[in-house]
Specification:
- The complex is a heterodimer of chains A (about 110) and B (about 110).
- Chain A is an all-beta fold and about 110 residues long.
- Chain A is built from no helices and eleven strands.
- Chain A is globular, with a radius of gyration of 13 Å.
- Chain B is built from no helices and ten strands.
- Chain B starts with a strand and ends with a strand.
- The interface of A and B includes residues 42, 58 and 97 of A.
Chain lengths: ~110, ~110
């Protein structure tokens, strides 16, 4: 079991560029989510999904898109990167409402 | 008032000390309580997971929940330098769309 995997580990973008952060899990978890972590702000929820084909916004969704076409994958898209999106991004998954979330290793993104 | 407040840090203790990490929360709907440990430049790792009030022990770690006072604690006995990390409390409700709410984390340093 690889658990939750994320690619890339590091990325540098220029303002206005787009990119997709990949997240995959091999635990057959229905619930997946994306967080960003900034100094002094803690972990903030960007988007989440309760199953394939179902997504919803979290606390800080602006500037990000998601889709969930399979149970395993939950990519996060930045349509037009901004310096304010410089952060560490974590993907997490869980098997259900009462189950704990398991996190991936993170993607460190810098937008210049 | 923020939904989850965590004692500000950082905290530095000598090896072998008993450590007490604390959070308070405001949402009485929270029923699941998690503690995550995060090493520098790594993803959060689930450390303890409890449901409702009471204590749960796992080796040197004890999680305690007092729902009447909305107070969550994590105790570390015989602390080790390898316990040096950031600790995040994360309570959650029971609804299908209920989400983890993270404290900002407290950074613990255990001095050899």
């Amino acid at each position: 079991n690889a658990g939750v995997t994320q690619t890339p580990k590091f990325q540098v973008l220029k303002t206005g560029q787009s990119m997709t952060l990949q997240c995959a899990q091999d635990m057959n978890h229905e619930y997946m989510s994306w967080y960003r972590q900034d100094p002094g702000m803690g972990l903030r929820l960007i988007h989440y999904s309760v199953g394939a084909g179902i997504t919803d916004q979290g606390e800080v969704p602006n500037g990000y898109n998601v889709s969930r076409s399979t149970t395993e994958d939950f990519p996060l898209r930045l349509l037009s990167a901004a310096p304010s999106q410089t952060s560490v991004y974590f993907c997490a998954s869980s098997s259900g409402t009462g189950s704990p979330q398991f996190f991936g290793p993170g993607t460190r993104l810098t937008v210049l | 008032q923020k939904e989850v407040e965590q004692d500000p840090g950082p905290l530095s203790v000598p090896e072998g000390a008993i450590v007490s990490l604390n959070c308070t929360y405001s949402n009485s709907a929270f029923q699941y309580f998690m503690w995550y440990r995060q090493y520098s430049r790594k993803g959060p790792e689930l450390l303890m997971y409890t449901y409702s009030s009471g204590n749960k022990e796992d080796g040197r770690f004890t999680a305690q929940v007092d729902k009447s006072s909305k107070y969550i604690s994590l105790f570390i006995r015989d602390s080790q330098p390898s316990d040096s990390a950031t600790y995040l409390c994360a309570p959650k409700g029971t609804g299908a769309n209920s989400k983890l709410t993270f404290g900002k984390g407290i950074t613990l340093s255990v001095r050899p």
